[in-house]
From TrEMBL:
Record-annotated Aminotransferase class V domain positions: 8-334
Binding-site residues, substrate: R344
Designated name of the protein: Alanine-glyoxylate transaminase / serine-glyoxylate transaminase / serine-pyruvate transaminase
Family: Belongs to the class-V pyridoxal-phosphate-dependent aminotransferase family.
Gene3D superfamilies per record: Aspartate Aminotransferase, domain 1, Type I PLP-dependent aspartate aminotransferase-like (Major domain)
Length: 391
């Protein structure tokens, strides 16, 4: 029997879509070259640049974040080029595999998934590359599988300090609109993003913010591309999209940007941090009695958009997720090597305190029903923090 009541979706992506965005997406078909739509389109591009904090080029595609990954790689690199991917988890591995499949030589800077990269090791790798064979650094700003973040400003500082000319490519798919991100200030050359996370839209629209330095690299790129060709896009009226523009998503984006700017981007980020910290306090409480614990071991690297939770030995995260699903609550699964070992709670996008507390309460009930050791009262710890920090 299907559970009654409203579904609580706490997966870190796609995320909850505000009602007003869903209504905006339900828009009649219009001429995407007509003046009315062009006004909406241009306003959305300007708003997206404000969220990216860039004044540079943005290219857009019909496709998920993986499409933007491929577009970025093929527009910036050539067959046989070498890149360094910083290991962060499942998604850094996936990005590296995609690059290798495209004929790019991929070096991986290894890291403990629970602790994150050793920045001294990154500095050493840059200094060791005296011939500047590395054309780009691939960095996942927010690794959704582990609930850990990378310090992009620090990576840029290391590139500058060592005098290394590699492009800084950043995956912002699960960080944009949820964590602080500053493309121009941090010297990010290619910022990959998608619609279905902090922008609170349906899946199907992705983009790349591109620096002037990256555009110069693009003109020398020889990897095959057609639908994703930035050069071809520049010649089109929309400066993006080879073919049909996904009209409905832009009416949704217009509304999403309105909601973000009405709340204020700074307030949006503060809300994400507050809800994330409430989640972490709940999990730290559960961790007593050899219970579930935060997967990430470095407090200053924990994500404000998703929390990854490690189950005690001998207990299956998938069994817990299935139990919680009977209460109409969807938790995120462990990805790749973490499948069955962790579950994830997404706390990004269109989210408030009651929605989060409902998710945490259902999860605590699930722990009890599944016989998972833990210290009860984690939800109380979250409520206490939220009460103490209420505006």
């Amino acid at each position: 029997m299907k559970p009654r009541g409203r579904h609580f979706f706490a997966n870190p992506g796609p995320t909850n879509i505000p009602d007003s965005v869903m209504q905006a997406v339900a828009h009649a078909t219009v001429d995407f070259n007509g003046p009315d739509f062009m006004a909406v389109y241009e306003g959305c591009v300007a708003g997206l640049k404000r969220v990216l904090r860039t004044e540079q080029e943005v290219f857009m595609y019909t496709g998920s974040g993986h499409a933007a990954w491929e577009a970025t790689l093929t527009n910036l690199l050539s067959h046989g080029d070498r890149i360094l991917v910083i290991e962060t988890g499942h998604f850094s591995d996936s990005w590296g595999k995609m690059a290798a499949d495209l004929g790019i030589v991929v070096d991986t800077l290894p890291a403990d998934w629970r602790k994150g990269v050793d920045y001294a090791a990154l500095r050493a790798a840059l200094l060791a590359d005296t011939s500047h064979a590395l054309k780009a650094i691939g960095a996942v700003h927010n690794e959704t599988s582990t609930g850990m973040t990378l310090d992009l400003a620090r990576i840029r500082a290391l590139l500058d300090e060592t005098g290394h000319p590699a492009l800084l490519m950043a995956d912002t798919i699960s960080s944009l609109g949820s964590l602080d991100f500053r493309m121009d200030e941090w010297g990010v050359d290619a910022a990959v993003g998608g619609s279905q996370k902090g922008l609170m839209l349906p899946v199907g629209f992705s983009f790349t913010g591109v620096s002037a330095k990256a555009m110069r690299a693009h003109h020398g790129s020889t990897l095959p591309k057609h639908y994703f060709s930035w050069t071809t896009m520049l010649g089109r009226k929309h400066r993006s999209f080879i073919g049909t523009v996904p009209i409905a998503l832009f009416y949704g984006l217009q509304e999403s940007l309105r909601l973000i700017e009405e709340e204020g981007l700074g307030n949006v980020l503060a809300r994400h941090h507050r809800l994330a910290e409430a989640t972490r306090r709940c999990v730290r409480h559960w961790a007593g009695n050899n219970g579930p614990q935060l997967y990430g071991l470095e407090p200053n690297r924990l994500s404000d958009s998703v929390t990854s939770i490690l189950m005690p030995d001998g207990h299956d995260a998938e069994a817990l997720r299935k139990r919680v699903a009977t209460m109409n609550v969807a938790l995120g699964a462990g990805l790749g090597r973490l499948n069955g070992k962790v579950f994830r709670i997404g706390h990004l996008g269109d989210l408030n305190e009651p929605m989060l507390l409902g998710t945490l309460a259902a999860t605590e009930i699930g722990l009890r029903l599944e016989g998972v050791p833990h210290t009860p009262g984690g939800v109380d710890a979250a409520m206490g923090y939220l009460a103490d920090t209420a505006g």
